[in-house]
Amino acid sequence: MSAPALKITDLKKTYATGTVALKGVSLEIPQGDFFALLGPNGAGKTTIIGITTGLVNKTSGTIEVFGHNTDTETELAKMQIGLVGQEVNFNPFEKTLNIVVNQAGYYGIPRSVAIPRARKLLTDLGLGEKMDQNAMTLSGGMKRRLMIARALVNEPKFLILDEPTAGVDVELRRGMWDYLTGLSKSGLTILLTTHYLEEAEQLCKHVAIINKGQIVAMGTMEEVIATHHSGEPAKDGYRGGRLEEVFLKLTSDK
Amino acid sequence: MDAYGKWISFYTMLRKDIVRMFRIWVQTFLPSVITSCLYFLIFGTVLGSRIGEMQGVDYMSFVVPGLVMLAIVTNAYSNTSFSFFQSKFFFRGIDEILVSPTPPWLLIAGFISGGIVRGVLVGTLVLLISVFFTGLQLSLFNVGIIFIFALLTALVFALAGLVNGVYAKSLDGINIVPTFVLTPLVYLGGVFYSVHSLPEIAQYGTYINPIFYLINGFRYGFLGIADIALWISFAVLIGMIAALIAINWYLIRTGLGLKQ
After folding, report:
1. Does residue B239 lie within any of the structural domains?
2. Is there a domain that residue B259 lies in?
3. Most buried residue, A15, A131, B122, B155, by most Cβ within 10 Å?
4. Does residue B35 sit within a domain?
5. Are B256 and B250 in contact (CB under 8 A)?
6. For residue B61, what pLDDT band results from cuts at 50, 70 and 90?
7. Cα torsion B107, B111, B117, B123: sign
8. CB under 8 Å to B85, separation ≥6 — which residues?
């Protein structure tokens, strides 16, 4: 049996400020899955991603990426991952193409391979005409797509998207999802965090909902909705989709 | 990542930093060149002619190694500290490396190599300018010693700059050390005078200044004269390198100041 793309066991994190961000999270993402990790702001989603990718130190617990322990086989684990972070984190004075090519370099990919690969990715993501321009000239949506190109340049088996469509208009969002769905169908495992729950409901096979540092629901999208959705029709006020109702039920303080 | 992949990662960091330093050459190369011209003009030409000789050589020849060393020290230090701070503080560009399989020791090597390149480049520029002021009379007693001390001094201060870059939480944080610590130590480390020309108590003060040993060894390479034995200078240099590598390794490996 093949190892899961991501296996997290009893992950705990307490920040230096004393904030307990994760209280023993365990989850598994099968290979080839499109997995949604949902939760309100401050629930611990970005902390999980930060620890998995090496940006945040954990307090305890273990993480394996395609069977490679991130503590003992750090390089092998990181080789599998591509990250699209929540915040724009590239030098805006760099040329768009160079940002992607440099990222390939950090993965040990020579420029002779990285340059054509970066050009293709940028073209596929609609940034072909912006390749030789400084990143500061890109719009918000273009910057997001640049980050996707950068995350894919090492040809990862596991792509992590931390709120990739925040602040992106509807048309661009749909284009991004079409592109990423195509990648998912080709076998890429995707972990998605988003506040657009209707998108997660449509795109993802599995879902985990985290609240206050603990997983409160996990399974296939249908299982989670079937288990937690009351099925009652709307009585008053605005009502969202089924996943949104489940989400609010599981994470609301009321 | 295999050895070739690690080389590519190192080359990527170095190339990126060299492109950056040449793109902003007015900030990276020009200040040291102008400052050195002023030093050579004032201390060498104007005052030097009145001072006469220092340790048996004319004053201009005496100050050249110290001024080259000053350029190496300040440029290697500020390049690494600023480059790392910029990468950490502005836009979190450091995350690009942290998420990659680039190991911590390679990250250290990548960042300090830019500092070494700039330190040695600016030092060479200052040396070329000194040739003009000394009227092509520059003494080169032992090129090998000059090269080794230049390279290792750039390494020491690139490593020190990285420690500063890791700890700094604001732009002030990377300017305080060069202004209030580094520059006084260089000036009091024997750039403009021999330690033997100082009162005895001041000599003891100089001996606890690590930069004194670097300038001493470097000057020996040019003039064949030294205030203390060359091996002591070399030992101090190696000791500083070892200590700073250990500090940097600890800081980057644990992610102190980098990871939450």
Report:
1. yes
2. no
3. B122
4. yes
5. yes
6. confident
7. negative
8. B164, B165, B168, B171, B173, B174
| pLDDT, mean over chain A | 90
**Does A102 contact chain B (CB < 8 Å)?**
yes
What are the structural domain ranges in chain A? Answer: 83-195, 205-254
Average pLDDT, chain B: 89
Residue span of the structural domain in which B23 resides: 3-254
Cβ–Cβ below 8 Å for A105 and B1: no
Q: CATH homologous superfamily of domain A83-195?
A: P-loop containing nucleotide triphosphate hydrolases (3.40.50.300)
Tell me if A198 sits within 8 A of A167, measured CB to CB. Answer: no
Substitution target in B6, B9, B12 with the highest count of A β-carbons within 10 Å is: B12
The A158-162 sheet, strands edge to edge = A81-84, A158-162, A189-193, A34-38, A206-211, A214-220
The amino acid at residue B41 is: L
pLDDT per residue as tens digits for the range A149-207: 999 999 999 999 998 887 778 888 888 888 889 999 999 999 999 888 888 888 899 99
Residue B260 lies in a domain: no
pTM given for the model: 0.88
What total of structural domains would you count in chain B?
A: 1
What is the Cβ-side half-sphere exposure of residue A78, based on CA atoms within 13 angstroms?
Answer: 25
Contact between residue A8 and residue A48 where contact means Cβ atoms under 8 Å apart: yes
The CA distance from B243 to the nearest CA of chain A, in Å, is 25
User: How do residues B172-195 score in pLDDT, each as one tens digit?
Assistant: 888 888 888 888 888 888 888 888
| Phi-psi region at B142: left, alpha or beta (left = phi > 0; alpha = psi -120 to 50) | beta
Spatial CA neighbour of B218 closest among B127, B143, B112, B146 = B146
Mean pLDDT of A102-124: 96
Judge: A108–B8 Cβ closer than 8 Å, yes or no.
yes
Does A45 lie at the interface with B, CB-CB under 8 angstroms?
Answer: no
CA distance A72 to chain B (A): 12
The string of pLDDT tens digits covering residues B126-174 is: 999 888 887 767 778 889 999 999 999 999 999 999 999 988 888 888 8
SS3 state of residue B238: helix
Q: ipTM of this complex > 0.90?
A: no
Residue A55 sits at the chain B interface (C-beta within 8 Å): yes
- Using a CB–CB cutoff of 8 Å, tell me whether A53 touches chain B: yes
CB contact under 8 A, A108 and B92: no
- Cβ distance A106 to B102 less than 8 Å, yes or no, reads yes
